[in-house]
Write a structure and sequence with these properties.
The protein is of the alpha/beta class and 329 residues long. The chain is 35% helix and 21% strand. The protein has a 7-stranded mixed sheet, sandwiched between helices. The longest helix is centred in the N-terminal third of the chain and has 15 residues. The chain contains 12 helices and 14 strands.
Length: 329
């Protein structure tokens, strides 16, 4: 076992490196991913070690990055596209939903597009306009795309490799506010023994209520569970990990035991993933529920300026308030 304590950002770098070592068809494309190593240094030193033909600095044109990846994938490559910030993905949105998502269906299964599109997402870093967004529902709503989000260094390392190895296109959301948080990563763990890419994980067992979160909000949910334990409430925390498909059996098993569920995400509440999850839980766990499924989300306004960001983002107090409301029923 070759384990080391590293940041989530560095774990992604290790994952990219291992994927490129294992498959010469893996290529990285994006703005400033080469000599600079990416704006968050996720691709640091990869161009130096693998060359400019495999780590490609592109023009500032997201539609061009993804469109080029479509052609490369059809010709047998496994492109990994970096979208520099979440708010920059929208110029590529047509390519993603009209080409990447539909090519397998359009070709009656003859063509696959093994493209991984990496998107740093969410708030919490005091960024300017277009640099803090949570667009995951747009992609999870689109048939033909797989959508995942890591929340810790160990998952970042394995999930990115699994996404690149997948024959399906994967939208890979990285919680940018967690890039510098550290955890232990086993760099030699066989990928075939890793937790399946599209499976949820119980990160803290509990008996009294279920907290459901993904990406940057998993840490908030865990902190809320720790705080609730001081009041004698044992909250179960589930890291969804996969947003399309969602691992509902793990969710249903937990909610049927606890009788309560709170879904937490940074994205705005209206039409968000929390609404879909709440509906599914209500349909499948109705007779086990002791209270309505509650949501803690961003407000239905654009991501605000950085000095107001903390008023927008779900935090410990808002999650604990939802838990209290659930027990009030």
């Amino acid at each position: 076992m070759m384990a080391e304590t590293t940041t989530l950002g560095k774990a992604l770098n290790h994952g990219l490196r291992r994927a490129m070592e294992n498959d010469p068809k893996v290529v990285i494309m994006g703005e400033d991913v080469g000599k600079l190593g990416g704006v968050f240094r996720i691709t640091d030193a990869l161009q130096k070690d693998f060359g400019e033909d495999r780590v490609i600095d592109t023009p500032l044109a997201e539609a061009g990055i993804v469109g080029t990846a479509v052609g490369l994938a059809i010709r047998g490559f496994r492109p990994v596209c970096e979208i520099q910030f979440d708010g920059f993905v929208f110029p590529a949105y047509n390519q993603i939903v009209a080409q990447v998502a539909k090519m397998h269906y359009r070709s009656r299964g003859k063509l696959r597009l093994p493209i991984t599109i990496r998107i740093p997402f969410g708030g919490g870093i005091g960024a300017v306009e277009h640099h803090s967004e949570s667009p995951e529902a747009y992609f999870a709503h689109t048939p033909g795309l797989k959508v995942v989000s890591c929340s810790n260094p160990a998952d970042a390392y394995t999930m990115l490799q699994q996404a690149i190895a997948s024959d399906d296109p994967v939208i890979f959301f990285e919680p940018k506010r967690r890039y510098w948080e550290k955890g232990e990563v086993d760099l030699e763990a066989p990928l075939d023994r890793a937790h399946p890419l599209h499976s949820a994980r119980v990160t803290r067992p509990g008996t009294d209520a279920t907290l459901l979160a993904y990406g940057p909000m998993v840490r908030v949910a865990l902190d809320a569970a720790s705080a609730a334990a001081e009041d004698g409430r044992e909250l179960e925390v589930i890291d969804l990990r996969s947003l399309s498909p969602i691992d509902y059996p793990v969710i249903f098993e937990s909610v049927k035991r606890t009788g309560r569920a709170v879904v937490v995400h940074e994205a705005q509440g209206n039409g968000g993933l929390g609404a879909e999850i709440a509906a599914r839980i209500t349909e499948n766990c109705f007779y086990s529920l002791e209270a309505p499924v509650l949501r803690v989300t961003g407000y239905d306004v654009p991501y605000p300026a950085s000095r107001l960001e903390e008023e927008f983002l779900p935090d410990l107090d808002r999650v604990l308030d939802a838990v209290d409301r659930s027990f009030g029923w």
